[in-house]
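hey so i finally got around to running the thing on that chain from the lab meeting. sorry it took forever, my laptop kept dying and i had to restart like 3 times. anyway pasting the input first so we r on the same page abt which one it is
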Amino acid sequence: MSAALPFFRYHPDPLASGSICAAAETCACCRRDRGWIYTATFYSAQDVSGRFCPWCIADGSAAERFAGEFTDSYGLDGVSEDVLHEVTRRTPGFHAWQDPHWLVHCQDAAAFVGEVGYAELAAHPEALDQLRTDMRLDGLHDESRLERFPTSLGEGATVMLFRCTGCGSHLAYADAS
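ok and heres what got predicted. didnt touch it at all, straight out
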């Protein structure tokens, strides 16, 4: 492997999430094989042949060259233009069944922790409470189903966990097939 990976404030462990993996593959942007490659989403009207190295994501060159984004701006309401640009154009996205989106807390984008099951989610009761509140807002009012849902994660549903970069609170949203 070559040099240390760049740090992504809003996705601090892209190796653990599977968004970046070791690979002997040439980057579609810089045309170098740096030992690591991005494996998640990239949205562009252009036809992109190949995947990107983490350095071309971090410096924004991949998004600029191919006029694209690594994640949609959905959910990033209330953040500054700089933060919006950093998350959508200079931060690795992540794998999800539905369109992935970023969560916001304390008027900043939260850091993506990863896809989690019930045990990891239960370790962050504020995220579990917030998830249940969101599910109620989405129309699920059956309290027994709200209680059972987190314990059935992995059976066609998962949870995306985030951590606020300001106060450290955890947030989550459900993703289902």
